[in-house]
């Protein structure tokens, strides 16, 4: 089977060509199992840059998302849902949106694809998770880097820089330790890289233990994830 990133033709080999970013985005989109990636935005697109601007102004722009998710969870499970559950999910999804395009591009081909906050967006599914990621070519840098390890590390550095401001300011109304907060950042990157490598046909082995916890076990009938940090580490998460 052909590796998803094998389509390295003139459109992607010249990162300055106007069609280069859309071409790489299309390759990533075909490799994604659950999410769509596109260069087309809509009225429903939430722009990273807008969220960052609100955070800088002292607002809590992710609060409506958390509140809506909590209400949906309570309706679905017919019980009160602790606020730390939607707080964890929203932070995870925020980081996952940023990690996905960079990790997949760096893993599927020789591309360092780095959207600025102004160039990245997402749209929510009815379940209130991101199911559509948008990458604006005009707000995205693309470079060919033939060093796989170095390329991936550069992508990770760019990802951390993109999410850090919102992660640092994240105030979901519940206590969130530094281990949980920055563990989410690291876990979402490792998850994106692992999925990307799997899409590229590499053997990824069992899922490694996470640093952060999503607290899904707090919902009726739900169990801890296989990679939950609570396994064998009482009091963690």
Task: For the structure shown, list the relevant keywords.
alpha+beta; 237 residues; two-stranded antiparallel ribbon; 4-stranded mixed sheet; single chain; disordered C terminus
Notes on the protein architecture:
The protein has 237 residues and is an alpha+beta fold. It has one domain. The chain has helices at 10-13, 20-31, 48-56, 63-77, 84-108, 148-169, 178-199, and strands at 36-38, 46-47, 111-115, 120-124, 130-135, 140-144. The strands form two sheets. A four-stranded mixed sheet has the order 1-5-4-2. Strands 3-6 form a two-stranded antiparallel sheet. Helix 5 (84-108) runs antiparallel to helix 6 (148-169), helix 5 runs parallel beside helix 7 (178-199) and helix 6 packs antiparallel against helix 7 (178-199). The chain starts with 9 loop residues before the first helix and ends in a 38-residue tail after the last helix. Mean pLDDT is 89; it is low at 233-237.
